Amino acid sequence: MTKNTEDTTCEYHVASFVAYPILAQLNEVKQAITDIEGSEIHATSAEGKIVFTIEGNSYRDIGTKMDIIRVHKGIINLSPVYHQILDESTGDDVAQL
């Protein structure tokens, strides 16, 4: 039996993304992003490009949240830009991807 380490993680993850929505569905896509716990929209261009971040406690948490947005019917493309991991037990950066 394997131990689930997800519950005992001391990591803090923040990842940034650029979403390219169907312009006619821009508001729906923005709402879907802000409905995700730990997400925040930082900018939206006149062409509809959305820059946002997602916070989580593991790679899996970030991936799950990203997948919810990625499969939205109004998304043309979702591109990851940056991912940083902090070890909260020491306060050190673990990695920057």
Describe the structure in brief:
With 97 residues, this protein is of the alpha+beta class. The protein has helices at residues 26-34, 59-70; strands spanning 11-21, 39-44, 50-56, 75-87, 92-96.
How would you characterize this protein structure?
The chain is an alpha+beta fold. Helices cover 22% and strands 43% of the residues. It has 2 helices and 5 strands; from the N terminus they run βαββαββ. It has helices at 26-34, 59-70; strands spanning 11-21, 39-44, 50-56, 75-87, 92-96. A 5-stranded antiparallel beta sheet has the order 2-3-1-4-5, with helices on one face. Strand 2 (39-44) and strand 3 (50-56) form a beta hairpin. The longest helix has 12 residues, at 59-70. It is elongated.
* Total strands: 5
Note the main sheet.
5 strands, antiparallel
| Residue share in β-strands | 35-45%
Contiguous runs where pLDDT drops below 50 for at least 5 residues: 1-6
Terminal Cα separation, in Å? 31 Å
Helix content: 10-25%
* Rg estimate, integer Å: 15 Å
* Strand line-up across the major sheet: 2-3-1-4-5
The computed structural class is alpha+beta
| H-E string | EHEEHEE
Structural shape: elongated
Count of alpha and pi helical runs: 2
Mean pLDDT: 88
Set down the secondary structure blueprint:
Elements: E1 11-21, H1 26-34, E2 39-44, E3 50-56, H2 59-70, E4 75-87, E5 92-96
Antiparallel strand pairs: 1-3, 1-4, 2-3, 4-5
